[in-house]
Request: fold
Amino acid sequence: MTEKADLTAVLDRAAEGGRITPEEALDLYRSAPLHALGQAADAVRRRRYAGTEHIATYIIERNINYTNSCVTACKFCAFYAAPKSDKVWTRDLDDILRRCAETVELGGTQIMFQGGHHPDYGVEYYEEHFAAIKAAYPQLVIHSLGASEVEHMARISGVSAEEAIRRIHAAGLDSFAAPAPSCCPSGRARPSRRSRSPASAGWRSWSSRTASASSRRRRCSWARARPTPSASSTCA
Ligand code: SF4
Reply:
């Protein structure tokens, strides 16, 4: 663990454009004061986008939770319900489309389709829903899912992850969202990740899915940064 004074030095170095080591990055992640971290990040932004640094952009996005049923059981998650629990709910397509309509009416341009790893939802479920959303609201960007969802739906449908990616993209998925707990590091941190997300895919799988999406030149946030200030909290 880097001492507090050293953390300041690491942040200063990063803000000035210097490199930091993986260990220092982990220390910052765990221990850096939030405002100091934000200040350093802002310094980097201002330097990299000199001339337009006074411009910050945003979009209006809506999270649409389609089910809380999830087989993954992440320990930190207050959202999911075990699939056989009486707390499980799902949203039907009409309800989802109504929420899309509200988003458009409010000037929204993007939706995050976010939910648990439902035991029955394979590639077909996402194809049907993405296609229906795009048919009704072609102007909406669908920015959703992550490697863990891809692994899960592919397993249920008995297809490869590559085929799942191809099909959900063809159905309307525009970009992938944040990684799931599956991208937590393995190695020394592996027992910790396993205890937090016991049924989630591992980071190697996440990495492999990322490479897959990248190689297909997806407009994909795994592969390339986009100005998408969505704050996904449960999964994906
Ligand atoms: S974070 Fe996502 S994958 Fe994990 S239990 Fe919650 S809904 Fe399921």
Observations:
- Residues 131 and 187 are 39 Å apart (CA to CA).
- The pocket of iron/sulfur cluster is lined by residues 70, 72-74, 77, 79-80, 116-117, 180-181, 197, 234-235 (CB under 6 Å).
- The longest helix spans residues 34-48.
